[in-house]
Each structure stands twice: as structure tokens, then as C-alpha cells.
Amino acid sequence: MQLHSINAKTTPTLVGGYQPLEQNDQEPYSDSSPSTTTTPDNSIANLINNNTNETSLLLEPSIQHLTGYVYLLVLSACIGGFLFGYDTGVISGALQPLSNDFTMNTAEKEIVVGSTTVGAIGGGLLAGVPLVLLASIVFIVGSLVLAAAQSYGTLVVGRLIVGLGVGIASMIIPVYISEVAPKSFRGQLSTINVLMITFGQVIAYVVNIIFSNVPHGWRHMFAVAAIPALAQSIPFVPESPRYMIATGQNEGARAVLRKIYHGSTTDEFIEQEVDMIEQSIKLSSSGSFKELFSSENLRPLLIACLLQAAQQLCGFNTAMYYAATIMQMAGFRDHGDSTSVAIIVALTNMIFTGVAIKLIDRVGRRRILISTMFTMIVGLIALGGSFAALQGVTPKQDSCDLYGNVCSRCVLDERCGWSTDTNICVSLVLGNDEYQSECPADQTDHRTSIVLLLSLFIYVGSYALGLGYAPWLIQSELFNMRVRSRANGISTSVNWFCNLLVAISFLSLTNALSAAGAFWFYAALSVIFWVLIVRYVPETAGKSLEESQQLF
Known about the structure:
By secondary structure, the chain is mainly α. The chain contains 23 helices and two strands.
């Protein structure tokens, strides 16, 4: 399936952060729901004519329902979104059995987790050239390399390859959907990819549960991703009209547009679309970095970067990447149990992302962001408090005996075990036979564990309602077409970099600060971001591009 994008280097959908519509310089925002507030500048014609000539919109056909052809295009493309979600969620359940088979230390675990993000950064750089076909091939190769890995080095290489697919898919898929969707359905169809990403994460957790107690089950977890990737590689979906026009295939673009709008369009409207796309391509390539850093665009750029940094540095992706590990920290020592309970993270994220899609235009970006960040911070503080109640705030110690009689902290250290005879922490290196890898029932506080799960639910749900979704919408409404691609490229780079920081530091952070200290650290960062957002981020819902720019 060869899906190209002439403007792929814009805003990708990232793990734990989902933009509803790829901003491909055709429209800053669109939503088909009649109950939502849409911006006055919903078409490229309005933007090109500075919102002074709206007669071009009169030719747009009235579409009552989408054709099967459009659904085929969108759903086929969204397999890439599903794979994106699956391959970023599967590591949660695979990490523990991987560490057993390859005897990984903390740093090596973090490298395995973070290597996908490194690969995704590289994939984002490649995304202007290739296609979804390439992404599906990369997913297949990466999945098979991981499934067959016999060494730690091969494992890292496989994760890097999968990351390339993630980076390409995150760039190309939303762009393609926005380029083939009829205007009146563009916002609605773009949310399918968002939900497919979260659905992919849920399925990853289900697969993790199925293979959690199977010997070398992590191989099956990784191999499953090759199945939908193979289906996506079937070349039956055409390139987008925008790509065709950019490469001189205007007749092909007209043919695809006629299929998209089916029998409800006219030749006059098709010609209008072709003309608007041609003008938008010229306009989108006319901006420069000098213009981007002008007084008019610098503050919006800083706000976009602030939002992207906040989206990642609140620590949400620790819940996605390390959910099963966090559950083990919480007292669910059995790998199958911790993996089963961890699915609450993916389910909560998917459900509340769907709620956010429905609410964000009605409530407003700024309002929903500020309110949900507040409850997210409360959830983080409570999460840290629950861990403190369960295992104290003791960081990783040089020797096992320094954990004393704190069983829940003792068993988190892979060097240590709990002596049931003496009720103290003992070193496994010394050859102690009388030990347990989990705490006795009388030392497990189930009520605190329930509070911990509720805190995690509040944290994840609040994030999905606000920070996981709103930054992309706000960012799409801050920049004019001349600089939007460059601005999105910079802010997206901030997002990827912060994502990488979180991925490669969480386990080290818990060793240095304890699990409680790590989540309180994320809470402190979130408070700082919350204050900055309250102070500097404006409300952009219901405003035209020009009205949004006047806010600065």
C-alpha cells in the first residue's frame, strides 16, 4: 500500500499524545460534529484568501454518508496506527520475561524501552520520502527480528527497527487520512486513527496476558505485530490527491477525488479542489526559519514547545512502557497478575481519549487542559503517597540488609529476597535458600494497593482527557500555513526528545528516589507546567487563525 505524503514532516501522533488531525496545511482544524464549535477558516480557500472570500465553499457537495471506498482507505491506513499503539504497548508485558532471559540490569532495560523512541525519531526524519508500505515492511522486519532475538544486541536492533516503523507511521498516517477524507468528515475520520492507536495498546496488553506464563512468551508478543503489518502491505490503496498533484499526476488526483466524493460532486468542484491543493502546496513551502522566529511567531512556537514538553515530562509514558513493572512495584509480584492488572492503564487511556474527542470542542482547549492537569497532579501525588505507604521512600541500597524489615522494597531489588525465618531482607548472592520473591500475605496492604490503583486511574484518565489530546489541537491553531510545517517540526522534536528522556530514566529514577519519589518528581514538574500553561496558553477554540494570532 503506497501512501505518500508531500508534507509528512508536521505533527506526528506520539505515544501518550494523540493529535486528532494531521495539519497538512489544508485546514487548521475541522470537526464534523454539528454539536462542536468549528473555526471559521475550515478550508484552504479561506486561508489563501485571508478569510475574505467564502464563495468557493458554495461548490462543496453535501455528503450524507461516506462511501465504502473512503472507509477502505481510512481503515487500511489506520492499521499503521494500530501497529504504532501495539508496538509501544507490548514492551510493558514483555520487559520482565526479557530481563529474565537476557539478565538485564536497570540501564539495559531502559535502553530496550527507549530504543524504540530513538528509532521513531529516525523514522520521522525518513517520513518525507517513503510511504506506509515502507512502514508496514519495517514493522514486519522489526517484529521478526525481535521474535527471533538470541542476544541483547539483536533485541535492541529489533526495537530500533520497530521504532523506525513507529516514526514513519506517526507522521504519514494522519496526513494521509486528512488528505483523502471529505472535508465535512475530516475531523470525524481523523479520530479513527487516534482511537486505533489506543486500541492497539489495549490489544498489546491482551496479548501480553495470553503469553505471560508461556515460556519465552515475549517472542510471541512481538511476533503478533507482523500479522496486521502483513495485511497492510497489500498494495491496493492509492496515493493521496495531494501527493499526486505535487508530483504532476493531476488526472490521477481528479479520479481519486471523484471516488472519494462519489456521485455527489461536480466537475467544477473537483477543479476547485485541485486548484486549492496546488495553491496550498506553494504556500506551505514559502515560509522560512527567519519568519518562524519573528516576533509574530516566536511566542506561539514557545507555547507549542511548552505543551509538547508538558505532555511527556508529566511522566505518562512511564505508565505505558512500564505498567506491568509498576504493578509489580505495587505488590503484584506474579508476572501474570501484574500484566493482567496493568491493562487498566490501556483501557483507561482508550476510554478517556474517546471522551476527550467528544468534549474538547464543547468545553474548550484551555479549560479542559487546566482542569484535567490539576486532577492529574492530584493523581500523581496520591500515587506517590500510595507507594510511600507500601514501601516507604527508600531508594535502592548498596546491600540487601539495608532494607531491614521493609519487605515490599526488598523484593523489588533483583539481588534480594525475603527471609521468612528472620523476617528481614537477605542477599541472594550469599546463597540463601530460605527466601521468597514476594511478601507474605500478612505484610501485604491490600487497601493501600486499591488506593494506588485508583490513583493510577485518576492520573491516566486525567491525562487522556487533557494533555494527551489538547496540545495537538492548540498547536494546529497557532501558526499560519507559511511556517506551520517548520513550527510543528520543532515542537514535535521537543516531544520526541522529552519522550526519550522519560523512557530511559524511569527505572533509574525509582532506584535513586524510590517509586514514591519518582512520581512526586513528575508531580512537581507537572505543577510547574500547569502554572506556565495557566499563565501563557490562550483559548483557541472557536477562533479563526487570524483571531488566534491576535492573542499574541
